[in-house]
Amino acid sequence: MMQEEIDYSKIHVSEIQGRYVTYDHLKVFISSLPPMFSVENIGTSVRGEAIKSITYGFGPKRILMWSQMHGNESTTTKAVLDLLNYLKEDNHDITEIATSCTLKIIPILNPDGARGYTRINANKVDLNRDAQDLTQPESRILKKEFEEFKPDFCFNLHDQRTIFNVGTTNKPATVSFLAPAFDMERNSSPSRKISMQLIAAMNSKLQKLIPNQVGRYDDGFNSNCVGDAFQMRETPTLLFEAGHYKEDYEREKTRELIFHALLKGIETIISDSLDDYTVNDYLSIPENGKQYVDILVKNSHKLKPSLSSNQIIYIHYKEVFKDGKVVFSPEILNFDAMPLDIFGHKMLNCDNSIDMNWLKENEILALLY
After folding, report:
1. Is the domain of 177 the same as that of 309?
2. Do 110 and 22 form a contact (C-beta atoms < 8 A)?
3. Are 303 and 194 in a shared domain?
4. Which residues of the chain, if any, have pLDDT below 50?
5. pTM value?
């Protein structure tokens, strides 16, 4: 398989964009999938909405993927649609995937949360904290699929906030990964080692596309998290976190990067090339920091004279679901609560007339009064 030859623009599912993604948006795409894709209703959500799975291939290596466990984390859903669109093509590389693996993808596990653009489900439960108690129908559906499909690999697909940077650098964590722990001591195990090697393979691809913009997510153990729970059952499980790319609040560039990571992961699995990558390759990925705000404003006393001349304003966007779309609403963060080293995805200086006009046009000035 030669990912370098892929023209992403040709497989990008352009009719599904933005942050708000529900089964309504997926309906036409899913219904148009050719017979080589098996679409099933695998259960219903709290509010009775069908949860679907899409199965492709007939090979012995079995990969289970699920997205939008958190309803407001849709970037990876768009990426798996691009993957499915790629798999519709007729060429040798794709035939190799079909004969080597069986993919089972749940594009939206939490359709009620997706419809309301909430992290939680309709019962206000975080499904990623329900792996042991299984109080929610969506959690039970995922467990049932896991037990019946018997995957060799699990891909747990999420979004992360714009606050994350790589290590202590000013590089945003555009994509982050985690090989979840399986015990409190965060020991290694055969399945966790495989997870680490597979992440290292995907990182090798992404470093060519976004150098130094891949982070490693915190591996604190929580048996109620699905990734940890599946790792406890000795199934290599990988957490994907789709993050921020410059000026990409709709996460369209990030979806492309997740697509390439997914394909590299599949390529590594079917080529039996895991041993080309090491645990140390994984551990060399810097851990995520939390040093980003969406907007950083210097010389803010030019906006509000009562502020000191060295006062910096830190602003983040709150995602507000309004009239069927996601609106990014600016909010000023607590001045006193910020650590010393903070980076801004947008850096503005009130000494600059262009920046001042931008602040006024985007109603930032009104936040100060």
Report:
1. no
2. no
3. no
4. 1-3
5. 0.96
